[in-house]
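Section 5: illustrative case.
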């Protein structure tokens, strides 16, 4: 996110082949015919190319991003609440390396990482998740932490097929039992099958189980069909069997077993369906061919195609779609071939085929309203830019 301009921070939340799309620039969906393509320059070369980070996975938070690879997690961004580095309260763009971390999750106000013997969290803490010594939750590497998620004031992880959550529980986002008393230690949330993926956004938690169903609990989501509003009863999303999904407080997207993208919820900027209604149930993005990953930001979403291309749709006020136009629409970002993506509030990041993390949009002042991907710097210095 930007530093000098005080843009409001929102809950973030955060992959398809588009054969009919031009190589870059805004692309018209069937609902928005006539959108002109805009040329985007290639990946920007920095005067001093940073060393390769061997990035393998990426997660976007409210004003920061974290990458896992090379035996560590590395986080960049502004840290006004200590979300990048514990105790570092600054609006400067900083970097932090966490040695030994093999999984990381970034939320609006906090960050969690998993190491061989514990899960560690930091950031906004008054009602939040850190508990125990220095915010550490003891775990062993076997079984490993297979999934990690950070909501507004709570966190969850998947381990051995079980989902455990802790932190603020005002809407039942931890265990389904609404309470003003935070949950200090992780509690297992009962599900109908073994969990493989967990996501959190705002006061809401969702998990994907082995048969492809997605269940959510806590604050009800837009576009969901519920028989009851009770937080203790997890709602099954009306989706075909899926292999991954991404949620925000207002909408979500999922990737089914055939590689099709489905989105649902508030459609304020066309992030659910360009040109669609204001609120939508799960709707297939038939205008998008097969994908391998999908990521939902605040008002835009992105998909990674089977060929490594990145296509984004929805709001573009900060050039988060990857094209140089302020209007909402559909764009194919100029990142060459990517292997992972993460959409945040007003920015998008990706890991390239060379395992380098790049971002575009409004992650920070140096990246403000830039449609061209820029490599994230190494942690050789203390503050950037």
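Designed sequence:
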């Amino acid at each position: 996110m930007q530093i000098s301009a005080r843009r409001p921070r929102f809950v973030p939340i955060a992959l398809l082949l588009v054969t009919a799309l031009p190589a870059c620039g805004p692309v018209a969906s069937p609902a928005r015919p006539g959108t002109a393509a805009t040329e985007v320059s290639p990946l920007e070369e920095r005067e001093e190319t940073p060393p390769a980070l061997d990035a393998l996975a990426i997660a976007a938070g409210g004003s920061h991003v974290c990458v896992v690879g090379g035996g560590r997690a590395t986080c960049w961004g502004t840290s006004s609440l200590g979300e990048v580095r514990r105790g570092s309260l600054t609006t400067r763009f900083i970097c932090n390396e966490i040695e030994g971390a093999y999984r990381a999750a970034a939320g609006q106000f906090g960050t969690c990482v998993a190491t061989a013997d514990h899960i560690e969290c930091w950031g906004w803490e008054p009602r939040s998740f850190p508990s125990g010594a220095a915010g550490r939750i003891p775990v062993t590497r076997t079984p490993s932490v297979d999934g990690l998620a950070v909501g507004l004031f709570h966190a969850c992880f998947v381990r051995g097929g079980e989902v455990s959550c802790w932190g603020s529980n005002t809407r039942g986002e931890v265990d389904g039992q609404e309470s003003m008393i935070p949950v200090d230690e992780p509690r297992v949330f009962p599900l109908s099958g073994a969990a493989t993926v967990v996501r959190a956004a705002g006061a809401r938690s969702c998990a994907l189980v082995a048969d492809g169903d997605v269940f959510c609990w806590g604050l009800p989501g837009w576009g969901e069909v519920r028989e009851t509003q009770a937080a203790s009863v997890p709602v099954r999303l009306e989706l075909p069997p899926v292999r991954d999904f991404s949620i925000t407080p207002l909408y979500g997207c999922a990737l089914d077993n055939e590689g099709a993208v489905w989105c649902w919820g508030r459609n304020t900027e066309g992030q659910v369906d360009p040109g669609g209604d204001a609120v939508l149930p799960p709707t297939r993005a038939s205008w998008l061919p097969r994908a391998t990953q999908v990521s939902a930001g605040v008002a835009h979403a992105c998909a990674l195609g089977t060929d490594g291309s990145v296509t984004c749709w929805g709001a573009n006020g900060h050039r988060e779609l990857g094209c140089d136009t302020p209007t909402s629409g559909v764009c194919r970002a100029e990142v060459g071939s990517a292997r992972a993506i993460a959409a945040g509030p007003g920015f998008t990041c990706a890991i390239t085929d060379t395992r380098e993390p790049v971002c575009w949009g409004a992650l920070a002042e140096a990246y403000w309203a830039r449609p061209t991907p820029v490599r994230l710097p190494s942690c050789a210095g203390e503050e950037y830019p």
